[in-house]
Design goal:
single chain, 503 residues, alpha/beta, Rossmann fold
């Protein structure tokens, strides 16, 4: 039975909660107050950013850490400020729903997965359900819902009993495709499984590890898929696509690679004789230009089907063609290598590596140049990595969003943000938001020299705790201090570390 006299803003808050979202991020102005107030009345958590771009990045980090759809609330004509964040989410396949006021649709069209413009109040319930479905289906991405002028305060008749989330289609592979891939892997002399960023997104890490164990085929991972199937396994060849990537020799020697949800990393598999590409996005197939089939399917459904076919046929390889490279990766990460950055990661492993809920938040550029392959991450959604398609300024707000996602389910979880370069990163003003709203996390700043501004003083001016580390001797104690300080003060702890990148 319809509920008369209900405002569109109240219905929006109810639908967002029904879609599994209990935290929203925004940069609302006066016209957006009714919607923000509706979320407050509904009991949803809220984090208000200093800039619309930061609000999108916060929702991005929340979505990556939680595995759910992030929600952004923005005011009228906020499209230009939203574009960098929407572009980042689209490039990395992060599901977002952006609720924006009039005049926001135009700038967002080139970067959003879908735009629903000028939505009147009566159509908002349908538009929201469609937005959540589109954001999740296939390759995830951001959807912008632009409300018509005055729509949030308008009264609508809403029947909650007849309203429910729309089903999200996931493509399963054809049995003939599964059989063909199994035959290729069994016939190859040096097969390799390669996990991309879509593997943790689809929850396929367990299925990948089980398939590798059954077929005795080694597996590696890209930066986006780092650690999704575990790091300490004897079949783990190591990470690829970055400096200090221990899995690169195995990738170079492989004669057949099953590339799982690797997206558009087109240069990664150049020279491999046979590449089988599996991706939920059909437009990503065939980009490697190498012989082998392309299969449009969900990574988890494909791996489960392939494992089932292998077990039913009783087919197994006699042994793996690689050694336990995982041990070599761990030794590199904890050794006292020739460059200081290895010591940084060794101390990170000692202080944070044993905590299963630790999340590391960094960009692909920092991961590549500063030895991200040595980070002590293992398991799905432990490494939140922005790809090279995004603008500066993602890391700090994304870390705030990730911490918000863990606040209820894992209140003792540690979020470690890593940035590099002189001074504080772009959008570092969101540290003020973290300090004012009691968002604890550790921010690590790696710098080659001390030519930039005094980052410790700047961090303290933003309301955070800060400390500088200029030598190896004090690094571990500083990291331990940061871990205790951020939870005791309920604000960010910023560490500025004088370090050198991988050569």
């Amino acid at each position: 039975m319809p509920m008369p006299g209900t405002t569109a803003a109240a219905v929006t808050a109810r639908i967002v909660r029904d879609e599994g979202v209990d935290h929203v991020f925004g940069c609302p102005d006066a016209p957006g107050t009714p919607l923000y107030a509706a979320f407050a009345a509904d009991g949803s958590g809220r984090l208000t950013a200093r800039h619309p771009q930061s609000a999108v990045h916060m929702a991005d980090g929340w979505a990556r850490a939680s595995g759910r759809t992030g929600v952004v609330v923005a005011g009228p004509a906020s499209g230009p400020g939203l574009v960098p964040g929407l572009h980042t989410a689209r490039a990395d396949g992060v599901p977002l729903v952006c609720l924006a006021g009039p005049g926001s649709a135009g700038p967002a069209r080139p970067v959003a997965k879908q735009v629903l413009p000028a939505t009147p109040a009566a159509r908002l319930p349908w538009a929201l359900r469609e937005a959540f479905r589109t954001a999740r289906e296939g390759r995830p991405g951001p959807v912008l819902v632009e409300s018509a002028a005055g729509a949030d305060e308008a009264g609508i008749a809403y029947g909650p009993a007849a309203d429910a989330p729309l089903p999200v289609r996931t493509d399963a592979p054809h049995p003939a495709q599964v059989t063909a891939v199994l035959e290729l892997l069994l016939a190859a002399r040096r097969p390799l499984l390669l996990a991309g960023g879509g593997v943790p997104e689809s929850g396929a890490g367990t299925a990948l590890r089980a398939l590798a164990e059954w077929l005795r085929v080694p597996f590696a991972d890209t930066p986006g898929g780092r650690g999704c199937a575990g790091l300490g396994h004897d079949l783990y060849a190591g990470p690829v696509g970055c400096r200090a990537g221990a899995g690169q020799p195995a990738l170079d020697a492989a004669d057949c690679v099953l590339a799982l949800a690797t997206g558009r990393r087109t240069g990664l598999l150049a020279g491999v004789p046979t590449v089988v590409q599996v991706d939920a996005d059909p437009s990503a197939l065939g980009r490697y230009g190498t012989p082998g089939p392309g299969i449009a399917a969900d990574a988890r459904l494909f791996l489960e089907a392939l494992l089932g076919a292998a077990r039913a046929a009783g087919e197994r390889r006699p042994r793996s063609w690689t050694g336990p490279a995982g041990a070599a990766v761990r030794a590199d990460g904890t050794g006292g290598g020739p460059v200081p950055v290895r010591r940084v990661h060794a101390e990170l492993a000692a202080v944070f590596g044993t905590a299963p809920d630790t999340r590391f938040v960094l960009t692909d550029e920092v991961y590549a140049e500063w030895g991200g392959a040595l980070l002590p991450v293992g398991g799905e959604r432990r490494l939140l990595l922005r790809g090279r398609g995004g603008p500066p300024g993602w890391q700090v707000p994304a870390a705030l969003g990730a911490r918000a996602a863990l606040a209820a389910e894992a209140p003792d979880a540690v979020v470690v943000g890593i940035e590099a370069g002189p001074g504080l990163p772009a959008l570092a003003e969101e540290l003020t938001v973290a300090a004012e709203c009691s968002v604890p996390y550790v921010q690590l700043l790696l710098d080659r020299d001390e030519c930039g501004p005094d980052t410790v003083r700047l961090a303290e001016a933003y309301g955070c705790s800060g400390r500088r580390v200029t030598g190896r001797a004090g690094l571990r104690s500083a990291l331990e201090w940061a871990r205790k300080e951020t939870f005791s003060t309920r604000r960010p702890a910023v560490l500025a570390v004088l370090a050198a990148p991988e050569e």
